[in-house]
Design brief:
Strand content: 5-15%
CATH architecture of the largest domain: Alpha-Beta Barrel
Radius of gyration: 26 Å
CATH topology of the largest domain: TIM Barrel
GO molecular function: alpha-glucuronidase activity; xylan alpha-1,2-glucuronosidase activity
Number of strands: 20
Structural class: alpha/beta
Organism: Cryobacterium lactosi
Bound molecules: 4-O-methyl-alpha-D-glucopyranuronic acid
Strand order of the largest sheet: 7-12-13-14-15-16-17-18
Protein name: Alpha-glucuronidase
Largest sheet: 8 strands, parallel, barrel
Distance between the termini: 28 Å
Number of helices: 22
CATH class of the largest domain: Alpha Beta
Keywords: Hydrolase
Pfam families: Glyco_hydro_67C (PF07477), Glyco_hydro_67M (PF07488)
């Protein structure tokens, strides 16, 4: 079955912005008193919208229906501006509490919409808000990002990698940046992607895979002029380009004998290479480094710590305002399954927490949200709570590696929201959520490719949208964000159609969880491609991802009392909660405990009956979604309807496969009959 459409001859789906021009900007009289490179982008959006829908620029503010102005500190009183109520109110709000560089105020009064910002970046974001959401409600609304770093990482390869393809863990066609070992000549699609990203507040993009193979290593040197072309495209949308680099670059590219980070010639190589990057790309964002992880080289080869490894790269970037994103995904991937003392979940804490305070100021430690690997359900990584003198970015995965690979509907906004709201100190007054601990911002792995819908599954666009919006406003309600996305993406859909789309997506993560690995135990996926069930697929492997099911019970004992001790990496009260069988939340029970099948959950069900029931329910949920979607056939565009219809057939098949294999596996292991009398194989 073909689930992606990589024809480049047709324009891709417009997603949450109108493809060519915004009808929200057209047909209006527009006054712009602002300047800067990003205001040029704003002006050209208005020009295109006016060509398509009418409207014109005016010279006198009192003639305007849309006003875009920059305010400075202190604000120069401009009597003409003060005559327009929307402007007056927006400017007063800006004066009362100064705008941050990317912030803006939207005000609407007497048929005039005013966008007031302090920089061209803020003005761009204000106009993009208007394009996405249409006219604001009467009144004054202030928007500003919670954090200045809101970034997407691409795992794109330049050549089709024999195992991983064009995009590692990509499910939406080929790379939009690279083809045949080169940067694409035609970057129109990148420009449209950049516009979409800016509209949800993304301001940094790393364009190549963190697994940096030989060809991709050259992006840092020989291929720089081509990288600069991509950076030019992103720049007009206020997005800085980053590169993933190979830690051994001084050897691979520079011909040095060693990449030992403490050797002066190695530090010098990084400085010179970095200076050349900035000659080509003055606003270059920095490096992403996966070191000593899954075969990538790193400082361990030279007996150096990760801080010693990161700091010379940081020193090379610092004079240019660049950042090193250093990934904390470091663990032993040659584990012996017989060895019960090693626990992959504990690895990152062990490597990085002792180094707290040793990283340079422009190093951001990029920590996956959970201690294992983007599973459907994991506890929040304790590393995020433990580092108090290191910049930490929370890494999420928009590409659905373990959550249905953009063949299954799985809206991840609610999952990310739980992570961002998690409080290591418990529910006490003043306890800070993860959203506040992310001093290095938010990063996610993108889900985009050359597919017509950008994301393979049209409804997977909602995940890209939600990541952007949550990185701007981490405590926003993910279901409100979902409705925003539906409104912007299906502008012509009636209320019924919008409600149906909402109902299919809102609980789709919970549904996916029901029919896959139970109660937080994780994996149970095919080890070949991480798609579909294979309960023992990783059970005797070297990757450290086990469930330990036997005839009596299932789960990983990570307690301090009798298990690996991982629970002890949390501060109180979570350390005690996770340790205690009675207090551990049901949805993480098998992540922390090995329990007998007749263990009674807080829900009142036994573990085995929960497994039987949820797997049946999960498939029923998908069947309901399928029926609901079928009812939309004449209510939304036919291309989207057809693609989702095809994918739902696959989701129903795959969910049924999961249900049958999981139920059968546990029935055979435990010998416990299903209390409802359901037959198992
Ligand atoms: C880019 C998981 C994925 C790998 C990925 C790795 C990482 O192990 O399966 O494909 O590599 O995470 O995040 O570096």
């Amino acid at each position: 079955m073909t689930t992606t459409d990589t024809r480049d001859t047709t324009r891709e789906h417009p997603a949450w912005l109108p493809g060519e021009s915004s009808r929200h900007l057209g047909g209006r009289r527009v006054y712009i008193d602002a300047h800067g490179p990003l205001v040029d982008t704003v002006r050209s959006e208005f020009t295109r919208a006016m060509a398509a829908h009418g409207g014109r620029f005016v010279d006198v503010i009192t003639d305007a229906e849309i006003v875009v102005i920059l305010v400075t500190e202190p604000m120069a009183p401009n009597p003409a501006h003060a005559d327009v109520a929307a402007v007056r109110e927006a400017a007063a709000a800006a004066e009362a509490s100064p705008l941050t560089p990317e912030g803006y105020i939207l005000a609407r009064r007497d048929s005039v919409t005013a966008i007031v910002a302090a920089t061209d970046h803020g003005a761009l974001y204000g106009v993009l808000d208007l394009m996405r959401n249409g006219e604001p409600a009467p009144g004054v609304r202030r928007e500003q990002p919670a954090h200045p770093i809101r970034m997407l990482d691409h795992w794109d390869n330049m050549t089709v990698h024999p195992v991983m393809g064009a995009v590692e863990r990509g499910y939406a066609g080929d790379s939009i940046f690279f083809t045949d070992g080169e940067v694409r000549r035609d970057l129109d699609r990148v420009a449209r992607y950049a516009r979409l990203l800016a509209a949800v507040g993304i301001n940094r993009v790393a364009i190549n895979n963190v697994n940096v193979h030989r060809t991709e290593a050259l992006l840092l040197t020989d291929k720089l002029p081509d990288v600069a072309r991509v950076a030019d495209v992103f720049r007009s949308w206020g997005i800085r380009l980053h590169l993933s680099v190979n830690f051994a670059s001084p050897v691979l590219l520079g011909g040095l004998e060693s990449a030992d980070p403490l050797l002066p010639e190695v530090a010098e190589w990084w400085r010179e290479a970095t200076d050349r990057v900035y000659d080509a790309i003055p606003d270059f964002g920095g490096y992403v480094v996966k070191a000593d992880s899954e075969g990538q080289p790193g400082p361990f080869s030279y007996g150096r710590s990760h801080a010693e490894g990161a700091n010379p790269l940081a020193a090379a970037l610092a004079p240019h305002d660049g950042i090193v994103h250093w990934r904390a995904f470091v663990y032993n991937h040659h584990q012996d399954w017989r060895d019960r003392s090693t626990d992959r979940a504990k690895a990152a804490f062990g490597h990085f927490v002792p180094l707290d305070g040793q990283f340079a100021d422009n190093v951001v430690l990029q920590v996956k949200h959970g201690p294992i690997d983007f599973q459907t359900r994991e506890p929040v990584s304790p590393v995020i709570g433990a580092l108090t003198h290191t910049n930490v970015a929370v890494e999420l995965q928009v590409t659905q590696e373990y959550t249905g690979q953009q063949k299954h509907v799985c809206y991840l906004g609610p999952a990310w929201s739980e992570i961002l709201r998690f409080r290591f100190a418990g529910e006490t007054d003043g306890a800070r959520p993860v959203a506040d601990l992310a001093t290095g911002g938010f990063v996610a792995v993108s889900n985009v490719g050359t597919d017509h819908f950008l994301t393979g599954h049209p409804l997977a666009q909602a995940n890209l949208y939600a990541f952007g919006r949550l990185s701007w406003e981490p405590l926003a309600d993910p279901l409100r964000i979902l409705d925003e996305w539906i409104g912007a993406t299906f502008p012509d859909a009636d209320d019924h159609a919008r409600a149906v789309i909402h109902s299919i997506l809102d609980s789709s993560w919970a549904t996916y969880e029901k029919y896959t690995a139970p109660l937080g135990v994780g994996f149970m996926v095919s080890s070949r491609d991480h798609y579909g069930p294979d309960v023992d697929g990783y059970e005797y492997s070297r990757w450290g991802t086990y469930h330990f099911a036997d005839r009596d019970g299932v789960g990983v004992d990570r307690t301090q009392a009798t298990g690996t001790g991982f629970a002890g990496q949390y501060p109180s009260p979570w350390r005690e909660r996770y340790e205690s069988l009675a207090e551990c939340p049901d949805d993480l029970l098998l992540f922390f405990h090995h329990v007998p099948y007749d263990h009674v959950l807080k829900s009142g069900s036994t573990v085995i009956q929960h497994i039987y029931d949820t797997h049946t329910e999960g498939v029923q949920d998908v069947l309901r979604s399928q029926a609901a979607w079928a009812g939309l056939s004449n209510r939304i565009d036919s291309a989207t309807h057809e693609r989702v219809t095809t994918l739902l057939v696959e989701q129903v098949r795959s969910a049924g496969d999961w249900r049958d294999q999981i139920q059968t596996y546990f029935f055979r292991k435990s010998g416990v009959a299903d209390a409802t009398g359901r037959p198992h194989y």
